[in-house]
Amino acid sequence: MNRSPQSDKPQRRARLLLLIFALILLCVLAVVSLTLSASRMVAENTDELTRLRIPELQHMGALEQAMADRANQLYLYYATADRAPWKVVNPGLAEAAHAHLAELNRLGLSDQARRDFIALILEFDAHSHGFDQVMQAQPRDWDALRAHLAAGQEALDKMHHELTDWRAQVSRAADASGEVAQDEVIQLTRLQVAFSVAVLLVAAFVLVALYARLKDQDALYRQAYFDDLTGLPNRRFLEKDLAAHVHAARPGCLMVVQASRYRRIGRTFGHGTADQLLAAHVGQLQQVLTAASDTQAQLYRLNTDTLALICLDSVSHVAAEQRAAAMLAIQSDKLVLDGREFHAELRLGLCLFPADGEAVDDLIRNADAAMHAAVAGGPAVAFTLRMAQDSADWLTLESALRHALQRGDFELHYQPKLCARTESLCAAEALIRWRRDGQLVSPGLFIPVAEESGLSVPLGTWVLREACRQWQAWQHAGMSPVPVAVNISTQQFSDPAFPALVAAMLAEFSIPAGMIELEITEAVAASDPEQVVHTLQALKATGVTLAIDDFGTGYSSLAYLQRFPIDTLKIDQAFVRRLGEDPEAAAIIELIQGLAQALDLKVVAEGVETVAQKQFLQAAGCTQLQGYLFSKPLPVAEFSRWLTSL
Ligand code: C2E
Ligand code: MG
Ligand code: MG
To answer: CA nearest 623: which of 607, 599, 606, 603?
Structure first.
């Protein structure tokens, strides 16, 4: 699958929006440019139109034409003495000009100007008439004729002059009104451009707002369905996908993979490093899927340190386990972060659907139960029905443990530790017991639950306080109490406030130095040697002694061991148990003894059950012995008898 589900949907919507925006922009630009060119055309045409179409100018033209006609006929009559054409144009200019003159009123001429013009017309007509009479008289008076002609011409010239003035006046008015029209067109164009820009701005604003909203939606969507660190879809998405596969009756496999050292690495090197490592593991797993060309597989981040994988092409246990083995193979790859070398340590559980469940919650819980049954670094574990029962038991246990802590249903038993040389009591180990429904529950059953549910810190604080209180009680009772060892959980040890708590308890119960020993498992000591050295020094300064419990099974860095301010190594009981059967066990015990001698440490052997074991351990040089051979862990009253016998 390897998809980024629906994540490109908002981008597609954004692209669509941008396209719409571009189209709006183009439309607005087209409208603006059309408006501009249209207005330019209007402006260009206005001038000519106004000039050509003004009726006043037409009438003036007609008037001039009439005047020219009269003058021509008058001169023709004079030249040819033929009266016939002359008679055609009678009666006179006044009559021909009358209609045109009326139209000229629109020019806004003054009455005087009009009267003067009419007087000139009448003068012309009078001279034309006089000319006609002289032409008909015999003999003709040529001087009088010329006088009439000259006077008529003079009247015409004056009329021409007047008309020229009026024409100029009309042209000026036309120009002025043309300019006004052009100004109006320009104003109109500006308004239109402004309107278009406003529309454009509004469209842009709306689009920007829409785009921002889409981006917000996208961010919300990513927050809801994706993990920031790895970019993988999260649990919610897994549930959706799983529901879709189950609904569509698509068979497949669900794997749950836990990076088992994530929390420890976070506590030791900081959460940034743990996150970087997890992201790197995701990269490695993605590569495995890509290399297998598995297009039907999708990784998810289920929670802080746990990933999930859905494989649609692994529908049988064999196929699923093969795929799981390929995933687990990344554990052999080395990762270098800030100059440190890391290896993935994974726990992988798987279940098949629909075979192992048809409800999404059941499937996730079943794959999770299988994962919890897997050993870190070991092979993948497939879900079985027994696991469902176990995980139900686990939950019941956790809630019962919480109640027990509130009610104080715990007690401490004390197991004697004997000096190897004298075989007399020289110390004790406090071991917690849970009195549940009248039965004593062993810590092996509930300490892991307490560790995982965060209860181990309050529980551990109770143990420490109770051991200190009991030590003081023995002392007050006049017994000579021996040093008491208390087991410390990983979470207690990692708590920065822990050394201060220890110091406060020692002070509260007036415990002298060396009377309380803290047993820390080797696994705790292996997490971050530098930090461990620091914490151990702080604890040592409070006056407690320090032991490394179950030594020999973990991953203690020998190089650091000499820097740990510890007093005791407790050999893991597995070696003691194998004494006599496995020569290697004896060799390891001797090796630990040699190491302890070199570092000037005491060695305690626990789990001593037989005389042969005791004798071997005594011969090997162990300092103290602890085991059923001498005594089981005892309730206070019984252990007190050991103290009184001292
Ligand atoms: P541990 O600290 O290594 O304690 C020794 C365990 O070995 C005890 O089991 C003890 O009863 C058992 N044991 C002692 N001698 C023999 C023997 O000869 N044969 C056999 N088969 N077993 C022997 P227990 O009390 O069940 O405790 C188991 C583990 O639970 C402890 O291992 C310790 O890791 C943890 N634990 C016990 N009490 C506490 C506690 O108060 N706080 C924490 N954090 N862990 C505790
Ligand atoms: Mg112990
Ligand atoms: Mg032990």
So the answer is: 603
Which ligand is nearest the CA of 572, by number?
A: 3
CB atoms within 10 A of CB 320: 23
Domains 235-383 and 457-632 share a fold: no
d(CA 351, CA 256): 9
- Residue 479, pLDDT score: 94
The model's pTM: 0.54
179 compared with 322, residue with greater pLDDT: 322
| Interatomic CA distance for residues 315 and 384, integer angstroms | 16
Above 60 in pLDDT, residue 507? yes
Average pLDDT, the chain: 86
DSSP E strand stretches across 195-261: 252-259
Report CA(520)–ligand 2 centroid distance (Å): 8
Which residue from 431, 441, 522, 549 has its CB within 8 A of the most atoms of ligand 1, so it is best to mutate? 431
Using CA atoms, how far apart are residues 409 and 429, in angstroms rounded to an integer? 20
Higher pLDDT, 338 or 502: 502
> Per-residue confidence at 89, pLDDT binned at 50, 70, 90?
low
- Arithmetic mean of pLDDT, 101-110: 73
- What pLDDT does residue 425 have? 97
CATH number of this structure's domain 457-632: 3.20.20.450
Q: Is 522 in the pocket of ligand 1 (CB under 6 A)?
A: no
Round to whole Å and give the CA distance between 300 and 556.
34
Handedness of CA 206, 208, 210, 216 (dihedral sign): negative
Q: Which atom of ligand 1 is nearest to the CA of 488?
A: 44
Specify the residue for token string 């330019």: 40
Name which residue leads in pLDDT, 132 or 22: 132
Ligand 2 centre distance from Cα of residue 430 (Å): 8
Ligand 1 near 416 CB (within 6 A) = no
Q: Is 487 in the pocket of ligand 1 (CB under 6 A)?
A: yes
For 235-383, CATH number? 3.30.70.270
The residues spanned by each domain of the chain are 8-222, 235-383, 457-632
> 577 alpha carbon to ligand 2 midpoint, in Å?
16
CA distance linking residue 310 with residue 367, whole number of Å: 11
